TrEMBL record:
Keyword tags: Ribonucleoprotein, Ribosomal protein, RNA-binding, rRNA-binding
NCBIfam families xref list: S20
Protein name: Small ribosomal subunit protein bS20
Its job: Binds directly to 16S ribosomal RNA.
Pfam families from the UniProt entry: Ribosomal_S20p
GO cellular component: a single term: small ribosomal subunit
GO biological process: translation
Gene3D superfamilies: Ribosomal protein S20
Organism: Treponema porcinum
GO MF annotations in UniProt: small ribosomal subunit rRNA binding; structural constituent of ribosome
Length: 94
């Protein structure tokens, strides 16, 4: 029996750790996105703004770590900003 792992076993172990790490990052982004949408639907502008800032930060972090692609992050941020602006545009006009 070999005393070292084969390269395939090592790659499998590394990829499993990486997969779980990436899964945690994506899950965090999804959680903040859900909280943001709930805050918008509840018309809670302060909470929505706070959650949006956190979400944007998390998405940028995921992009820098290579978990999400540049276009995916841009698309998600754009959709969330649009939702925020449409939902609270009437308040800003008053």
């Amino acid at each position: 029996m070999a005393t070292k792992k084969t390269s395939a076993e090592k790659r499998y172990a590394q990829s499993e750790v990486r997969r779980l790490h990436n899964k945690a990052i994506k899950s965090t982004c999804k959680t903040y996105a859900r909280q943001f949408v709930e805050a918008v639907h509840a018309k809670d502008k302060a909470l929505a703004e706070k959650t949006l800032n956190t979400l944007v930060s998390q998405l940028d972090s995921a992009r820098s770590k290579g978990v999400l692609t540049r276009n995916a992050v841009s698309r998600k941020k754009s959709r969330m900003m649009k939702l925020y602006n449409v939902s609270f545009a009437a308040e800003a006009a008053k």
